[in-house]
Design brief:
Structural class: alpha/beta
Radius of gyration: 16 Å
CATH architecture: 3-Layer(aba) Sandwich
Strand content: 25-35%
Mean pLDDT: 93
CATH class: Alpha Beta
Low-confidence stretches: none
């Protein structure tokens, strides 16, 4: 590896992937392919070096309790206020939501959306589909839905980026990006590149 290549890697923004549950490895691979340095994160002190943090799928109640137990919830809120971007996928969307229908579970509550859990059915009813996401360009985005939520209401500052059957499944608010599906499973990096652009202030 040349000095120039080493310097480029060292200067690349660092994106963390919360490593309590979910497709951590797949997100790490997608982040690296998108052009950033990717690191697994599970402690508050690791947040300081990050341009952005991805909260992957899993069981939202369990992840929320772990965030509280390890002090990650308040640390993430503070780092967001200081400029860090957040990308929640599936359970991550739920945890970012200000409101969760029928639940008082622990959450970050940063995004002005209402989430409905398990909104497309149980795991055996998981499915794939193509989404029209004009902000990404390049044609339809393949999306994998696994016990997926959707966004049932949005605040005035939230930009709806994609819907499926009139249900909101991708949205952005400032440095917050929330997807009801699993972009890490489709073998492409457009959404991770878009999040990287958010984290570095390009969009």
């Amino acid at each position: 590896m040349t000095r120039e290549e080493i310097a480029e890697i060292e200067q690349a923004p660092v994106i963390g992937v919360l490593s309590y549950q979910g497709d951590v490895r797949e997100h790490l691979v997608a982040v690296e392919a998108a052009g950033a340095r990717a690191v697994p994160v599970n402690r508050p002190e690791q947040l300081r070096e990050l341009a952005g943090l991805i909260i992957p799928g899993g069981e939202s109640t369990t992840i929320g309790k772990l965030l509280t137990h390890f002090g990650m919830d308040q640390a993430i809120r503070e780092c967001y206020e200081q400029g860090m971007a957040l990308f929640g996928t599936c359970a991550g969307l739920i945890l970012m939501a200000r409101e969760i229908e029928g639940s008082d579970q622990p959450r970050l509550g940063l995004m002005d959306i209402t989430a409905r859990r398990n909104a497309f059915g149980r795991q055996v009813q998981s499915f794939e589909t193509d989404l029209d996401v004009p902000d990404l360009g390049g044609g339809p985005l393949r999306a994998v839905f696994i016990r997926a939520p959707y966004i049932s209401a949005v605040g005035a500052g939230v930009r709806v980026m994609a819907s499926f059957n009139e249900r909101i499944v991708l949205a952005r608010q400032d440095r917050l990006l929330a997807a009801a599906f699993h972009p890490e499973l489709v073998g492409e990096t457009r959404l991770h590149r878009y999040f990287l652009d958010i984290a570095t202030g390009k969009v």
